Amino acid sequence: MMKPVYISAAAALSPQNSFDADTLLPDVISSDNGKLFVKDTDYSKFINPVAIRRMSRMLKIGISTGIKAVQLSGAEKLDGIITGTGRGSMRDMELFLGDMIRLKEEALNPTYFIQSTYNSVNGWLAMQTKCTGYNQTYVHRGHSFEMSLLDAKMLLHDATEPQTYLVGCLDEMTDDYFIVKSKIGYWKKALPNSLQLLQHSNTQGSIGGEGAAFFTITNTSANSICSVEQLKMLQKPTAAFVQENIDSILSAHGMKLKDIDVVLCGMSGDARFQPLYTPILENTTAHTTVAAFKHLCGEYDTSTGFAMWLATKLFQEQSTPEVLIQKKGINPAINNILIVNHYTLNSASVVLMKKS
Amino acid sequence: MAEKIVVTSLGILSALGNGTDENLQSLLSLKSGVHTPTLLQSIHAHEFLMGEVAYSNDELSAMLGLPTGNNGYTRTSLLALVAMQEVMKGIDKNLLQSEGFAYINANTVGGMCAVEDLYPEFISDKQEGDFLKYVDTLDCAESTQNVVDYFDIHPFTATISTACSSSANAIILGARMIQHGIVKRAICGGCDALSRFTLNGFHSLKNVDKQPCRPFDNTRFGLNLGEAAGYLLLETEKSAKERGAEILAVLSGYGNTNDAYHPTAPSPNGDGAYNTMQLALSNAGLQPQDISYINAHGTATINNDAAEGKAIERLFENNIPLFSSTKPYTGHTLAAAGSIEAIFSIWALQQQKAWPNMNFTTPMEDVSVRPVTTLTDAAINHVISNSFGFGGNNVSLLFSKA
Which of the ends of chain A has fewer CB neighbours closer than 10 A, N or C? Predict the structure, then answer.
């Protein structure tokens, strides 16, 4: 088994107040139209003013989140940057494609084309942090972020000296994307208020979301928030398969389900995937808090990043906000968190994290 | 590297032909696959030369036993599937499955080749129609998933997108996953189909040449685009020997670095390319003088070739190896370039030949190194294959004779 890795800092831009707030999830934000958009911050604090003028929203969101994580970590030098994204900068792709069709392939603006490249945020982060080391971008739908994490785990497992990697994810919701995917059942037909999403788990579809989350990940536990002990990526998951993997992770760490203080579940209100979480709600004892997060960030390829950011906050705050709780447990402290998440295109993941 | 990683099966579909035999024969007979495209639908199609694969989507579908017409498979996926058919011939599927393997794919624009025709329908009020078969094909993992489903295999899957170095990164990831014991084998590579989106993207950057591209030539003006799919089966030397597989080459090192310089242009003195090649050498425990041939990235853009040329000049000093770009043969196949050029590099080792850099006549003014321009017999034990991409992403793969 690979060695654990440690998160020394975390930052997230999400539809909630996750970036600038001093407390965890103050003034919860909701939406009635099936779309949750990132709450903007002052991007000019993180990106140089000349560059920012031509940048699309996804680039600003991704770069600012990455830079903030580096700032919070105090790391002077990064050994590499690894990012996962299901869709990259959707809006740039739409603009270039739309112009190409409308202008009949004449006089096109290359900026949209360049920014639609899936690794463009990685490139910018490397420039801004002057990181000439390892650089990688995973684009594997619901496992894009998980692959980034696995890559960092492999690199740090081999490292003989202290190293720090910036690992993160970004995905964007657009109005067009919402229309396109509505035709194949991604979203609920009757849209509830986002905060009521999980009370509508008997119908197909979810609500759309987006966000970016970045972490500085190291091989030293000193000054870290928590560890990522183990990570499993599952394809075409069934409830039984998810359970098997939860059990095998727990037994590999000599743990029982009651040792898990919080399970962060990716239930999305979609009846097709709700059965993945039913055993968790049923099998957890009075010890464990079962929490959910997609009513706050919406469904997107890399929502595990938001969940992992939440986990770092729960470790730091040592309390679980009511808005997350599906079933309240009695364990007094938060030392062990399990993230169980899925994505619409038939993938799931399980991550075990421990407070440092 | 810890355990010796070897290459035991190849699959390739490019403008040079379908399969390893046709591609190798085209290389040996100095036959370029770059021509005026006949399949790509674009108002610019007649203006540019491209490395277009000779088969239509219906012909590719027929090769795969798939229904023709709007079958839900994008050209990107079809290219990947045909190349994968050849790789899968090199190993017993049941053995592959039972011992655990990864399929690491790479891609730059997913199924854009289909989506760009259907997008007006995608965003219209229409709720029914053939376009629905393609709604989930825009992302880069669509071809990956199609390969897994078509061959009914259950590998660990991943998809990488780092622009023009994508599939070289896929090869690195596969090797590392084997070395970490996560999988026993890995099929790694990439695929990209020509699309209006990509053509217009590079055209808007003024990076496309209307003439045959001229890598490392002073008169170079830009690239010729191409399309291809290429995959390599990697495993440990031990595992190859256990099953009696022929070892085609050893992947003895690799490097991945970033320029941290500019979104689309390399650092002008070639720092990125220099660092990456040096990293691959140190990873393999080799010295610059051990390298006999470099399959250069050599896109024939003004910036790349100057930077890469300078990097070769600086790193190899008095021992400049034979080097060339094979892009005039295939066009720049973007995400597939790293893997098909890895295959060409392996053939350089097997054939003991350096592939000529076509269309070279005039040396660059500010760089002293010259590419090899004729098919040259040489003792070649170690080769470097370079792939550099937007976002400053640089990869060098180092292959050694089996």
Answer: N
